[in-house]
Design a protein that fits this description.
This protein is α+β, with helices and mostly antiparallel strands. It is built from eight helices and four strands. The longest helix has 11 residues. Belongs to the NDK family.
């Protein structure tokens, strides 16, 4: 099967990554940020806050009809989350690979969920599933002026 969201593109993209409340409570914020930093992606937005119910519902609106939806909203609003915007070539699909499968027991070792989580309902991190959703989610979770455009000193050592 062709899984377009798993094929890394050659385009510079943006993705919305979020450490969910269990990741924050378990002290995994640094570890999770570190995986994306070390890979070579560029952080362009970062904040810790407790997200309102309406925002969680809008973010997960495609899952509205699922039986687990109310519990998902309860989970995401149960404590502070760390919202991040990351930029880079092929970042959307690459971040999904770094994160691993939705069910942490099926996620490969070496991935964030594969190494650090056990249950789908406590899978510690979110990543956008397409470039379109990356843009949509960053616009949803960040206000104007909260994002920062900059050139990392390491850039010429990462990209030819
Ligand atoms: P993803 O986060 O890997 O993109 P989605 O299918 O988009 O996975 O689901 C969004 C989130 O909803 C999951 O990360 C997980 O927290 C939660 N979720 C998905 N399926 C289930 C389930 O069957 N039970 C409980 N929670 C679920
Ligand atoms: Mg998803």
């Amino acid at each position: 099967i062709f899984l377009p969201h798993l094929v890394a593109s050659l385009e510079v993209e943006e993705t919305y990554i979020m450490v969910k409340p269990d990741g924050v409570q378990r002290g995994l914020v640094g570890e999770i940020i570190s995986r994306f930093e070390k890979k070579g992606f560029k952080l362009t937005g970062l904040k810790l806050f407790r997200c309102p119910k309406e925002l969680a519902q809008e973010h997960y609106k495609d899952l509205q009809s699922k039986p687990f939806f109310p519990k998902l909203i309860e989970y995401i609003t149960s404590g502070p989350v760390v919202s991040m915007a990351w930029e880079g070539v092929g970042v959307v699909a690459s971040a999904r690979k770094l994160i691993g499968s939705t069910n942490p027991l099926q996620a490969e070792p070496g991935t964030i969920r594969g190494d650090l989580a056990v249950q789908t309902g406590r899978n510690i991190v979110h990543g956008s599933d397409s470039p379109e959703n990356g843009k949509r989610e960053i616009a949803l979770w960040f206000k104007e002026g909260e994002l920062c455009q900059w050139t990392p000193a390491q850039e010429p050592w990462l990209v030819e």
